[in-house]
Write a structure and sequence with these properties.
Elements (H helix, E strand, L loop, with lengths): L2 E4 L13 E4 L4 H11 L3 H5 L10 E5 L2 E2 L15 E6 L5
Parallel strand pairs: 1-5
Antiparallel strand pairs: 1-2, 3-4, 3-5
Length: 91
């Protein structure tokens, strides 16, 4: 059993419309790198020029925001689900 990443609709064009992608990385940072290798252009949509998670992108591991865990160093275990959720502005 591996880890699963839930891809938001705006990024599915990069993953050939796959909603769920299985990954092997052991940290959030490693899975971002893995997604970039498999789907070029993915990382630039998640990380800013300094390599930090963009302000308007939220990443959750099992429904917990990685900003309140260890950011990209957050460890992953078998069966974890990672969700990428872009912030939506409205009015």
């Amino acid at each position: 059993m591996s880890k699963t990443v839930r891809i938001p609709t705006p990024l599915r064009k990069l993953t050939n419309n796959e909603e769920l992608v299985e990954v092997n990385g052991s940290t959030v940072g490693e899975i971002i790198t893995e997604l970039q290798t498999r789907y070029p252009g993915f990382q630039e949509r998640l990380l800013d020029d300094k390599g930090q998670i963009r302000r308007f992108v939220n990443i959750y591991v099992n429904e917990e925001d990685v900003r309140f865990l260890e950011n990209q160093s957050t460890a992953l275990k078998e069966g974890d689900e990672v969700s990428i959720i872009p912030a939506i502005a409205g009015g």
